[in-house]
Amino acid sequence: MKEGQKMALNNRKLDHILEDRGLTNLDPDTLWQVKAILSELEGEQLLKNSKKIISSDFVAEKATANYLRAVVEQNWVIISQNNRIIEKLSSKS
After folding, report:
1. How confident is the model at residue 56 (pLDDT cuts 50, 70, 90)?
2. Among candidate residues 72, 28, 31, the one with its CA nearest the CA of residue 50
3. Which end of the chain has fewer surrounding CB within 10 Å, N or C?
4. Could you tell me the superkingdom of the organism this chain comes from (predicted)?
5. What is the C-alpha separation between 70 and 50, in angstroms, rounded?
6. What is the pLDDT of residue 5?
7. Closest CA to 25 of 73, 69, 93, 88
């Protein structure tokens, strides 16, 4: 697979993750940061259903990966809430 095709596939996957979490209307700077974080997690195979997490035989590794994934999911909630707050404050100006 060519690098451009791989990036397009990764972008579609990242866009799908953002859509699932209601984060499609982020401002461009925040969106760039979120996609960079997702790309890093994908590169380290720490996203849900990654081969590294599914095939891990070590209980401690699985627990750590699950904990990290939970923290990431909490962060999506915070990002979404912050974005809504910013939009409401901006509309009052």
Report:
1. low
2. 72
3. C
4. Bacteria
5. 15
6. 47
7. 88
Torsion sign (Cα): 86, 89, 92, 93: negative
| pTM reported for the whole predicted model | 0.58
Find the angle CA(8)-CA(43)-CA(18) to the nearest 5 degrees: 55
* Whole-angstrom distance, CA of residue 14 vs CA of residue 38: 7
Q: How far apart are CA 4 and CA 49, in angstroms?
A: 23
Residues 6+ away with beta carbon under 8 Å from 25 = 83, 87
Contact 33, 82 (CB under 8 A): no
* Long-range CB pairs of 40-48, under 8 A, 24+ apart, other chains included: 41/72, 42/10, 42/13, 42/14, 46/72, 47/17
Number of folded domains that form the chain: 1
Residues 14, 16: Cα–Cα separation, whole Å:
5
